[in-house]
Amino acid sequence: xxxxxxxxxxxxxxxxxxxxxxxxxxxxxxxxxxxxxxxxxxxxxxxxxxxxxxxxxxxxxxxxxxxxxxxxxxxxxxxxxxxxxxxxxxxxxxxxxxxxxxxxxxxxxxxxxxxxxxxxxxxxxxxxxxxxxxxxxxxxxxxxxxxxxxxxxxxxxxxxxxxxxxxxxxxxxxxxxxxxxxxxxxxxxxxxxxxxxxxxxxxxxxxxxxxxxxxxxxxxxxxxxxxxxxxxxxxxxxxxxxxxxxxxxxxxxxxxxxxxxxxxxxxxxxxxxxxxxxxxxxxxxxxxxxxxxxxxxxxxxxxxxxxxxxxxxxxxxxxxxxxxxxxxxxxxxxxxxxxxxxxxxxxxxxxxxxxxxxxxxxxxxxxxxxxxxxxxxxxxxxxxxxxxxxxxxxxxxxxxxxxxxxxxxxxxxxxxxxxxxxxxxxxxxxxxxxxxxxxxxxxxxxxxxxxxxxxxxxxxxxxxxxxxxxxxxxxxxxxxxxxxxxxxxxxxxxxxxxxxxxxxxxxxxxxxxxxxxxxxxx
Length: 522
What we know:
This protein is of the alpha/beta class. The chain is built from 20 helices and 13 strands. The strands form 2 sheets. It has a 7-stranded parallel β-sheet with strand order 3-2-1-4-5-6-7, with helices on one face. A 6-stranded parallel β-sheet has the order 10-9-8-11-12-13.
């Protein structure tokens, strides 16, 4: 109401429109937010703050085509526009628009190594595999975006010991989302004799998995319609022993809450693949494949190693009996899946895919792309580089997750992206008994599938350089018997739980008990 009065009295006050737009966004009143952002730009079309706010809003709404149109004439040689350059890159990658990509990559890599420039750490992961650079980008972003959140907390008895260990999970993705599929068992099948579990949700979702989670945890707390001060008061009343950040720098994150003492121990897990670059998260949960011990200096969090594997490889997906014909897939083709999001696909990797399948007559690439613009960009790239565009099969959307997983099970094998791997998609492939071929890199994001394959003892499906990656694609296309052996190996692993002493829930709960015990000693 104060902002409304201010704008009424001073209708040309740009800052008031931007603050009110942010308030509307927090209240999920997106149309009013967009109106205020457009009003701000109408007042001053050169305002970097207004332009950045509008582009970030469009990103949240998935309007990437509008972002490209708005930013294509921006002077990105100016350092002050560096943050917009990351948003521009992301929008172009959404459509596999690789024009000027090389120069954008060089510019971003150069500017990211300075302390005064910031960009979204997720966007940086699409084009860079240097874990030291990732750390710098994360630190700069956190300092700029979150470090000004400071709160004075009331004493709510936080020093008192709880009868059970209280764990709070913070996310906007409790529902039919990749993160929830990864951590579902932690939220549903936890040891209720030792732990109490609370979900703090920053985004409203209404689906079957959301309902299952709500009905399984001790309490599900919706925070999406609350202000920051109210959220802090709510969370502080729970006297949490452990707070787990399942979002990091992803959309609908509440990571800024970790600036204050919301729990005795605070953990970064699953949502964001890498360090969050701050002193507030005590640990990052991982395993020694995804973050080898020699990489510990690239993480501000302490490495909390989960025995065997940091991800859930406890069981296979239980799928109905189907065939390729039911999914309109060619029956006699060598079908290779490439289902990662288009922004993860870089031209160098795509060229390797197309070059490899051109050497195998019956090989086809199956891609989950529906955008006509993206398809046209891929077709143009193929024509320019003498690749056979007709060897790509664009998959239609299927009505539910069971059909999605069943269709995956009919691929001969799948291909991973680099330097940003498939995470949940790689796990979905492997748990559908479809091997995944990955190119192992140096950063967290480029070692996730490597970790899964190492733990599942499928070392043959790991490549360590571009030449080996292409050679292995050709090799497996021409040696399907080896692919079938790998499929049988996966089946045996899941049937006998080879190597796994405990399931993921028990392995992580052991760590929870361990770190709380250490905390109490201090």
